[in-house]
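hi!! sorry for the late reply, been swamped w classes. u asked for the two structures so here they r. pasted raw, havent cleaned anything up. first the sequence of the first protein and right below it the C-alpha cells
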Amino acid sequence: MIRSVILVSGGMDSLVTAAIAKKESDEVFFLHLNYGQLTERKEKECFQKLVGFYQPKEVMLLDIPQFRSIGSSSLIDMNIPLDTQQTGIKVPNTYVPFRNGNFLAIAAGWAEVLAAGRIYIGAVEEDSSGYPDCRESFFRAFERSIHLGTKSETNIRIFTPVIHLKKAEIVKLGKRLAVPFQYSWSCYRDQDLACGTCDSCILRLKAFRDAGMQDPIPYRQKKP
C-alpha cells in the first residue's frame, strides 16, 4: 500500500502536486501549516475546500507561529515592502527562512507515525522566485536526513513532481488532472481579490496566459 503525506498550502503548485499524489497513492494525508503568512485566512479556506474535493484519509492543520518571531520575510511582516526584483542573483525578501525545512520535518514526523513512505511537496525550481529551499539538491539532502533521523524500519522518500516544470506546464498538467484551480490562491498581499501585481500573481497570470487558459480566481487588476 502506498501511503503519502501531502503538504497542501492552498497554492497552485501544491494543488497540482496533491492531484498527482492522489493518483499515485492508495491513501493520502493532507498537512496544512499556518506560519503567520499575511494570506493565512485565504490559504486555510482553500485548503479546506481541497479537503472536501479530494477526501484525504486524514487531515492535520497546525499553527507554527515561530516564523513571526524569526521575521525577515515580507510574507509575514506587512512592514517589509514586497521585493519585486527577480534578478536571479538576489533571493527576494518573500523568502521565509528555511520554511520548507521546517515543513518537511513536521511532515516526516507524521509520516513516520503513519508508516507512510512518501512526502509530496509542490516546490518549483525552474520557474519561480529562486528560493534556496526549493532546489532539488536540498530535497535530496533532506531525504537523507530523514533516513538518518528515523527508525531503521522507516523508509520515507520526498516527491517533488513539479519541481522542473514551468508554471504554464503546471497549469496544463492541472487541466489534464481536472484540478479545481478556483480553490487555489497565489497572491502574497490580499485575501479577497488577488492583487495582480505581486510577483506570485504575475507568475500565475502569465502561466495561465501561456497555457491558453482563463484563471478562475478574481483579481483587483491584471498587468498586460
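now the second protein. again sequence first, C-alpha cells right under
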Amino acid sequence: MPSQPHLTNYRYCPYCATPLTPAPKGERLRMVCPACGFIHYRNPTVGVATVILNGNRILLGRRAPGSTYAGAWCIPCGHVEWDEDIREAARRECLEETGLEVSVGEALAVHSNFHDPAQHTVGVWFHCQIIGGTLQAGDDLDCADWFALDDLPQPLAFPTDELVLQQLHQNFSGEKNHD
C-alpha cells in the first residue's frame, strides 16, 4: 500500500460528524466514517487554460499580488465550478482574467499538476480564438500581454505551462521550417 502521510484535512464525517479513521480501501488508505460508512476520496480538481496564439506570439498573464504565485506568468487559467461544463469554464476564466471573449476549440494538452501539494489538479489546455472583448487583466492577473514563443517572460507560475509552451514552440518552429 502506498505511503500517504497526509490523507486529508478532513477529520470528521460531513454527514454525521463522527471522527474519520484511516482504513485500507483498494490499494490506498482512505479516511472512513465508522458510523455511516462514508469514504472520503481525495480527488484532484479540474483546471482549464486558454491558449490564445497570434502567429508565434501567445497571450500570457502575470499573477497579481495576493494571488498564489504572485509576479509569475501563466497561460490564463482557472478552476471548473461544480456544475459547469469544462469549455464554459474556459470561456468564463478567459473573460475574467483577460477581458477577452473566446471560442473554445480542441484540447491541446492534459496534464496532472503536482506543483502545489495541497491542491492536486488535472489541467486541460484549450486552443482558443478571440471573438470579442478588450484585452485587460483582471481577477487573478494584474497584467496580460503577448510574448513570442521563443522569448517568454520569467518566472513561469506553473511547470505544466512550461511543458505546453515548449510543445507550442516546437510545433511553431517545425511549421516555420517546413514552409
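hope this helps!! also noticed smth abt the second:
Residues 159-177 form the longest helix (19 residues).
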